[in-house]
Model the fold of this input.
Amino acid sequence: MTAHLSICIATLNRAAFIGATLESIAAQLPEGVEVVVLDGASTDGTQSIVESFQPQIPTLRYIRQDRNSGVDRDFNTAVELASGTYVWLMSDDDLVKPGVLAALMAAVREEYSLIVLNAEVRTLDLSQELDGDRLRFGENRTYTPAQFFQLFDDTSAYLTYIGAVVMRRELWLARDRKSYFGSYFIHVGVIFQAPLPGPSLVIAAPCISIRFGNTQWRPKEFEIRMIRWTRLIWSLPAIPDVVRGRLYRKDPWRSLKSLVFYRAKGTYSLTEYRKWVAPELTSSLDALKAISVACLPGVIANLIGLCYCSLPYQDSKIHFLDMKASRFYPGRWFKRSP
Done:
């Protein structure tokens, strides 16, 4: 039987976390929902964990690939294999909050083109809340097709988180996806490549608990955030430069603050400078900034970051944990001392 909603999970080596994700779904699973787990060739116990949920989730389908094809291709394949009218591109380590599936099924019946789910951010073990309301909308918002640019303004930055996206499957399949393979943000390319044919809904109440600091692409974060994300945003044919320019710089790595931030996190070095920054340089000042920060001792950069994150601003708690997770965090050395 065709499902109304397919929860599509692309996973890789998440045996330690995917069980909790599936448990949060199984605890509130309504009729008309299937779960599709596409495994990009995990080498841990992911398969046995997922298959153990078959009695609790009768509509669960587990598909294991022979090799990993990357997160964009894997999510696209999961959508292609799904049968639901709508697909939810759910992450493989976060939790669905109680009551969300019933509310989502009610929204699905309203036939929106896109539904965006708000989230809260918690520590890795979920014990502490870091940000209880990422969007801070206060109430649900609906966007008509004519408000496409406003939708981009209000949600595109938040939608770096793929688990927030629920979309009509036929709309996903009708749009260009291959152009966004390798971007790490295929969903943003699919959503914003052209105006949506119907209204969009943003659900303001947090629906997902995100595990902070658990992303698998952290070592490549400078490349992904500063280069690939920016290239995707500035390639979207339906978004005028004046609209995207309100939110995004074309070359964000030209910012001294950004360079120091990623150096402090341990994801910007001479390697990233040579591969991603040097080929784009057009001024000696930018070159001096970029290479100077790449050579800046990481511990010093991290101390600068820690001082900055001690200031009161919206994401200070999250950024402070970013600094502590860095290989340059001075506290690591004290822990090693006898």
In short: Residues 221-233 form the longest helix (13 residues).
